[in-house]
Amino acid sequence: MHGMHTVDFSTRAPNVAERSRQLAAFIGNAAARLRDDGHEASIRGADVGGARICSVTLGGHVIADETSARLHAVTPAIKLLFQEEGSCLVEQGTRSVTLLAGEWCAYDKGQPFRITSDGFSRQTTLTLPLGRAQAAQRWVRHMMQRYASGEGADHILHLSLVAAIGQVRSLNEGSAQMLGNVLRELAEMTLLAKHGSGEDALGDARRARVLAYVDRHLADPDLDIDRIARSLLCSKRYLHKLFLGQDATLARLIWNRRLDRCHIDLGDPALAERTITEIALGWGFNDSHHFSRLFRERFGTTPREYRKARASPSRALTGPSRAL
Q: Considering the entire predicted model, what is its pTM?
């Protein structure tokens, strides 16, 4: 598996107090406790491409996480919980959802929550980091809603998740990374479909995912549509179609984003010692003449003229200053 992180936990204890202690220590939640029904607890799964997939078996239990907001503030995440056997009550804020076998919901890992079950419960879970506040906002309306997992996109996601947990240990790290990307895409497709978001919203979400990848790798001179297609497990034809009818093609968007970063750096006094060529190369350009031509087309001035103008003394204020 070449370094892929796996999750393997099970209680082995003669009494409920010790089982509860072991579970609480493993999940880092001192408030977690099991009911005295004789069932051991187990959690099995892996981290795949930033996502975590798990199969969870518990007896009656209460897991109340009041510290989520503090612990997950840096990396907001959602958790998709599929109820396989038994039932559970999920509570968050003023909302609650009772899940029976064959149902699922999503909740915000960045906010306090409480999960309760009176008896044996088996669940499959998918935890997805959201990364940016804008991404988290897109998921808000899908939180704490009860859905059936036996039909449509829900069924595809559920079956894929169960199969992934069963086979993930046979994958190498690169394949596991790809698997995480696929599960994220399936989850996003499923949730967007829930409120009649339609193809427009789904297309927006997919374009945002592509551009997020572009922004993460913008400084790499090897970034191109071929690499994006390979990394996101799609065809070049699909990517071209995805940006058809937009203000710019994907290739042009990549150049524009690079030009925007260069524009910022050229106007930054802290970077005055760096040459124009160094800045251009630092944002993925490999030809200074090509860079200068594109810069002039986008901003109406050459990089040298722009930098010179930015370095000129500021004009004196002719009126009273205003606090901004």
A: 0.61
